[in-house]
Each structure stands twice: as structure tokens, then as C-alpha cells.
Specification:
The complex is a heterodimer of chains A (421) and B (249).
Chain A: H1 14-27, E1 36-41, H2 46-51, E2 55-58, H3 59-68, H4 72-81, H5 90-99, E3 120-125, H6 129-142, E4 146-150, H7 157-182, H8 188-214, H9 222-235, H10 239-257, E5 268-273, H11 281-291, E6 293-298, H12 299-302, H13 317-323, H14 333-346, E7 351-357, H15 367-378, E8 382-387, H16 397-420
Parallel strand pairs in A: 1-2, 1-3, 3-4, 5-6, 5-7, 7-8
Chain B: H1 20-34, E1 45-46, E2 59-60, H2 63-74, E3 80-84, E4 89-94, E5 100-105, H3 114-124, H4 128-136, H5 149-161, H6 166-188, E6 194-197, H7 204-214, E7 218-220, H8 227-243
Classes of the chains: A alpha/beta (421), B alpha/beta (249).
Chain lengths: 421, 249
């Protein structure tokens, strides 16, 4: 079957080069006299690292990028050889593959596998017990210090301020930890400048997603938003990051003004719940385009990665980082369902598609409750498919296609009923 | 199916791996049985795994939508369909117009499918055709906890080693698949009447175990394997009528 042509954002293509440059710089960080941190969980610690000239490997995104570039299986094989079972988090297994990569195989290996050893580890936790033990395993393996920022579970909106207050204290302690590790003081003016860049870039990013989400047809596919995450992880806080998202926002506004959709025909608009299915991103892009389906919003792209530019005050960097650490991932089921319903209403969503990540217990945990709640309250259908963030072996394309196609048929039958009435 | 929604003929073939040749053979056989020629067929809708592989079809529709249409056509009051085939199982909730309200499918592994029963029958050295009938004779089903065909096979070997009679192991296997299916039904929302379709609906042991697990009587069509095809034929008839300018039901 020939895939329909999708109009990708031209401005997104820059992210591939930014990604390559980031890893190239990271590999050379030790010889350039930079300390290296391996970080898991949230990207909200990065502005501080950037302000202190500390190079970082974002472990989750390293694994995701490996899977999207089909380089994950070698790393997962290395971690399997080290004893990690295939049912545990594939992000963890992929990154631990880089940690355990055999010295004897390094000569001539793909440079992507060769990450510099960390001087210390940082993880910004979202209640993921796997992230804790995975970071702990890294700490033992590399024999380095480790620091954890833990976001409390947010039961109600009223709890949010308490969480931000607590997280602000933790970010302050992180600064002390990093000053101890580097034997240098944080330049607070520099951090404020970094945060000003973060605010500007994220304002463009969230603005572009909002504009695209409200437009019918939408000028952007989900896959461009997924790719744009690279701009957050690899360029956040820099002038390049600002330029990147300014360009994306401009292109989106231009497309909306021209009423230009990303798909040749946008028949159904979906909300995607759960992780990306990184090993099969191309397949998903082609399959959904072929069915005339556009994913308009997702928890991963829209509720994460600095989602609240309005709460960033460069004069108060730690409070701003804390506010952006309270995301959809730390929300209770009620808050999450409310937020998804808001997006479904604002963006004229027809149905929900949930990616049940087989090696993750945190993301899929509330799926049933959330889907049931949103379906009942908004009267929109939804379905699940099984897959994984970074392990291709858990995904069956034909089964997934049948589910999405059946969901599309259900939505179209309802639309036909409405049109007939 | 003719213009009056009468089924003229059908053919069920075991195709092994999904392939177009099997579909062509099945079509050829159905044409002979119906006593018509290929040219008499105006529209073909394909469904099921491999629906897009079959190039002689005019259109493809998923088995979920087709089973809903087929079951609704046979019994308009049906509100829940449990379709268990060789490769997957699904529960489909229907609205009062026979449209899909929601659905749930098994996960990637063979748990809760006909393949699970096939593997178990082979492990116990029993013909698949006799499997369900033997299950009905069990007075004290053995505790089979695994849904996974691979784990269940080793569990069955352990049960046999512990001295459980073969009849009770087979009874336990049917209870295991019924538990799996009943969870899917309850997740979708149990609404009666419940119909069962697909090849496993021919297994009386599986049907009885599911009835017990759900506490409801299950409606069966005499030929449960063709309900999806029946739905596809109904869609073909609508397409054909629409292209001829006739009223579409």
C-alpha cells in the first residue's frame, strides 16, 4: 500500500542536525574539560546544567532516539547479556546497554553506542520505581554520586502549589550538589538568562501546538510534535532553541492562514494517550496518513517537556523549574481525565487511542479509568494497542492496524449518522 | 448474498498463513456452491487478517465492524459479541442500531484465542474437534492459571505429572480461556443478549465455560465462523445498491 504524502514541517528538519551536534559535543565533553551527568526522568534539570556548563545525557531520550533510529537492539542485547530481563523498562535496558557496552567492542562501533562515562547521575522522578532502581544500578555500575528530584503525586489542583514549593526546595539542593561536584558556584544571572530563553522557546512551542490543535484540518501531525521534543531536550535554554521554536511557530501560523492541512485528507482526529512507539514511528506515520487519521494531541507531547511557559519567571528560576515539573505524569486520574477532556473539546477530537507500553507500568496504569471516564463524559470512543517505547518485539503491526482501522470505522459511522440526522 | 440479503453459499477454508490464493479458492468454491458465475458478483468486501492482501476485493472493512453488522443482521437485539478466532479474540459492544459502540481485543500473545486451545489440545494428544466435548465431562476442573499458551503448556505437563485426570485438565483449560474472555466482556460492559462468533464458538466446552463465567446464556449462530463474512457481504450489498442508485439500508 502506498502511503499518502504528509506535509512535514520544514522547520522540524533542523532538529536532526541539532541532535547529531548535541551527541557529538557530548562525546567530546570530557576532553573539553566538561563534567558529564547522566539524567533520567524529566528535562527540567537541564537549564541548571546548561548554566553550569555541565554536559548531559538524557537517558530516556537517548533510548528513544536509539529506537527511532533503529539502533536499540544492540544496546538491549548488551543489557540482556548483563542479566537484565526483557520485561523491564526498555528505556532502562537500552541506556544500561550503553553503560555496559563492552570495551572490546568499542573500536569501530557505531558512535551512538559510545557515550562518555558520567561524573554523577541525576534523576527527576515522577513516581517511577523503575527509574529509581535503574538510576541506582547506574550509580553502582559507574561508582558515582547521584541526586534525585522527586515530584509528588498531585491528587487535586489544590495540591499543586505544595508540590511546587517542595520541588523548589529540591532544585535548590540540586544546585548545592552540582556546586559540590564541579567545585564551582552557579552563576545565577546566567541561569536567569537560560530561563528567559526557555520561556521564549516554550511559549513558541506551546503556542504552535495550540494553534495547530484548534485548526481544522490541523497543519501538523503528531509526528512533528514528537520530533520537536528533540528541540527541547537538546537545545533548551539556548538561543538556538528559541530560533528553532520561533521558526516552527511561524510555519504553523502560515499554514493555518493558508488553511493548509498536514494530511491530504483529515478524516478523523485522535488523541494519543501514552508513550511514543519509537521503533515504529515511521510505520505509524504512514499507516495513519493512509487512513486519513491525524493525531492532534497527546499526553507525551502536550503535557510534558516544559508545558507551562506562563509559570516561568526568569527572575525565579527554581520556582519556574518546579512549576514545570508538575506535569500530566504526576496527575491523579481525575486531573488527567479533566485535562484530556479539555484537549478533546478544544481540539475537536473524535476518539482516543491508547498505547499500552508493555515494559512500563507507570504510564498505562490509569488508562482504563481515564478512557472510561472520557468516553462516558464526552461520548467519544477509544481503544488500546500493545506496543513499547523502545522494544520492537512487543508490537504487532497488523493487530494495531486492525484496531485503529476499526476505531476509524466506528468514528466515521457516527459522523455519517450525525450528517444524516 | 443476493439482493434480497439471502446467503446463497459460503465456503470456509483453513488457509494456514494469510494468503490470497486461499481466499481465491474459497471464492471459487462458494461460486460453485451458489451455482453462479464470477461475473454475477457485483461487489466484494474483504475482512479479517489479510483483508488488504486480497486484491480481488472492491473494499476492505475490519472484522470488528463486519462482525457487528453480521450479528446485528441475524439478531438485531444482540448487544455484545464475543468473537474468538484462531488468531485473536475480541469483545464488541453494539448500540441499538447495530453499530460498534466500543470494542476490546486480546493483547499480542495468543492468550484467549483459538490458538491457545489448539496448542493445549496438541500438548494433551487430543483432537481439537473433541476438545470441547471432553471439557464438558469434567466434574472437577484442574486449576490452570496461565493464559499464555507457552506457560500453560508447561503448567499442563505439571498437572499431568501431579496425577490430574486428562478430562479435568481439559476442563481447567476451558475455564482459563473463559476467565480471560469474561474479563474482556466486563471491561467493555456486559450487556445482554451476548452472541459468540468465530471458530471457538463451535467448541461447546468453551461456550459453556464462558456462560458460567458470565452468568448469561450465549446466543449462537449455526455457522459462527461466517458471521464476519456475512457482515462484509451486507456492506458489499449496500455499496452495490448505492452505486446502482437504489436505497441503502
Amino acid at each position: 500500500m502506498e502511503a499518502r504524502e504528509v506535509k512535514r514541517l520544514a522547520s522540524i528538519s533542523q532538529i536532526g542536525k541539532v541532535t547529531d551536534a548535541f551527541y557529538d559535543e557530548l562525546r567530546h565533553a570530557p576532553e573539553n574539560g566538561k563534567k558529564v551527568a547522566w539524567c533520567g526522568g524529566y528535562p527540567t534539570t537541564f537549564p541548571i546544567l546548561r548554566a553550569m556548563d555541565i554536559a548531559y545525557l538524557f537517558e530516556d531520550v537517548y533510548a528513544a532516539t536509539a529506537a527511532a533510529r533503529h539502533k536499540e537492539s544492540k544496546l538491549q542485547q548488551v543489557s540482556a547479556d548483563a542479566g537484565y530481563l526483557p520485561e523491564i523498562c526498555s528505556y532502562a535496558r537500552t541506556t544500561l546497554g550503553a553503560a555496559y557496552f563492552p570495551e572490546a567492542e568499542k573500536a569501530g562501533a557505531d558512535p551512538y553506542y559510545l557515550m562518555p562515562k558520567p561524573d554523577f547521575l541525576i534523576y527527576a522522578d515522577i513516581g517511577c520505581s523503575m527509574l529509581t532502581s535503574w538510576s541506582d544500578a547506574g550509580r553502582r555500575h559507574f561508582k558515582t554520586p547521584m541526586f534525585a528530584v522527586v515530584t509528588p503525586y498531585v491528587w487535586t489542583k489544590a495540591d499543586e502549589q505544595d508540590s511546587i514549593h517542595d520541588l523548589t526546595r529540591q532544585y535548590g539542593e540540586l544546585v548545592t550538589f552540582l556546586e559540590d561536584m564541579t567545585h564551582r558556584r552557579l552563576d545565577w544571572d546566567r541561569l536567569r538568562q537560560v530561563m528567559a530563553n526557555v520561556k521564549e522557546a516554550i511559549t513558541y512551542r506551546i503556542g504552535a501546538m495550540e494553534t495547530a490543535g484548534r485548526a481544522v484540518p490541523s497543519p501538523v501531525t503528531f509526528f512533528d510534535w514528537a520530533a520537536s521534543i528533540g528541540g527541547v531536550n537538546y537545545a533548551i535554554g539556548t538561543p538556538l532553541g528559541v530560533e528553532l521554536f520561533r521558526n516552527i511557530n511561524t510555519e504553523v501560523e502560515q499554514r493555518v492562514a493558508r488553511k493548509e492541512g498536514a494530511l491530504p485528507e483529515e478524516r478523523v482526529r485522535l488523541y494519543w494517550e501514552g508513550h511514543m512507539c519509537w521503533p515504529y514511528m515511521r510505520w505509524w506515520g504512514d499507516t495513519l496518513a493512509d487512513l486519513g487519521v491525524n493525531i492532534i494531541a497527546a499526553k507525551y507531547t502536550h503535557g510534558h517537556f516544559f508545558h507551562r511557559p506562563d509559570l516561568i519567571d526568569p527572575a525565579k528560576p527554581l520556582e519556574s523549574l518546579a512549576a514545570n515539573s508538575v506535569t500530566h505524569l504526576s496527575y491523579s486520574i481525575d486531573l488527567l481525565a479533566e485535562e484530556i477532556m479539555r484537549l478533546c473539546r478544544d481540539y475537536s477530537i473524535d476518539a482516543i487511542l491508547c498505547h499500552y507500553t508493555r515494559t512500563c507500568r507507570i504510564f498505562p496504569g490509569p488508562f482504563f479509568e481515564v478512557l472510561d471516564t472520557v468516553s462516558r463524559k464526552l461520548g467519544i470512543p477509544g481503544t488500546f494497542f500493545e506496543g513499547d517505547v523502545a522494544d520492537a518485539s512487543f508490537f504487532a503491526p497488523e493487530q494495531a492496524r486492525t484496531r485503529v482501522e476499526a476505531l476509524v470505522e466506528t468514528v466515521l459511522a457516527r459522523k455519517a449518522d450525525v450528517a444524516q440526522a | 448474498m443476493d439482493g434480497g440479503q439471502r446467503v446463497l453459499a459460503y465456503s470456509v477454508v483453513n488457509q494456514g498463513l494469510v494468503n490470497e490464493e486461499a481466499a481465491q479458492n474459497s471464492l471459487a468454491e462458494a461460486i460453485v456452491r451458489a451455482g453462479i458465475s464470477r461475473e454475477d458478483i457485483s461487489t466484494i468486501v474483504t475482512t479479517g487478517y489479510g483483508r488488504d492482501l486480497v486484491k480481488f476485493g472492491n473494499r476492505s472493512i475490519t472484522e470488528i465492524t463486519c462482525h457487528a453488522a453480521g450479528a446485528h443482521h441475524l439478531r438485531p437485539e444482540i448487544r455484545t459479541i464475543v468473537d474468538v478466532g484462531g488468531q485473536d479474540s475480541k469483545v464488541i459492544a453494539l448500540d441499538d442500531r447495530g453499530r460498534v459502540a466500543t470494542f476490546r481485543m486480546n493483547d499480542k500473545c495468543a492468550a484467549g484465542t483459538g490458538r491457545f486451545l489448539e496448542v493445549m489440545a496438541r500438548a494433551l494428544g487430543v483432537e481439537l474437534a473433541d476438545f470441547g466435548r471432553i471439557a464438558l465431562q469434567s466434574q472437577n476442573p484442574a486449576p490452570v492459571s496461565s493464559f499464555c499458551a507457552v506457560f500453560a503448556e508447561s503448567e499442563v505437563v505439571s498437572l499431568a505429572a501431579k496425577g490430574y485426570p486428562k478430562i479435568d485438565i481439559i476442563g481447567g483449560i476451558h475455564q482459563a480461556i473463559a476467565r480471560r474472555l469474561s474479563s474482556m466482556v466486563r471491561a467493555v460492559g456486559l450487556r445482554e443478549p451476548v452472541a459468540m462468533t468465530g471458530g471457538v464458538a463451535k467448541n461447546e466446552g468453551a461456550v459453556r465455560a464462558l456462560e458460567q463465567a458470565l452468568g448469561v446464556e450465549i446466543v449462537l449462530h449455526p455457522e459462527p465462523q461466517i458471521v464476519g463474512a456475512l457482515g462484509a457481504a451486507l456492506f458489499a450489498l449496500r455499496s452495490s445498491a448505492a452505486s446502482n442508485g437504489a436505497a441503502v439500508r
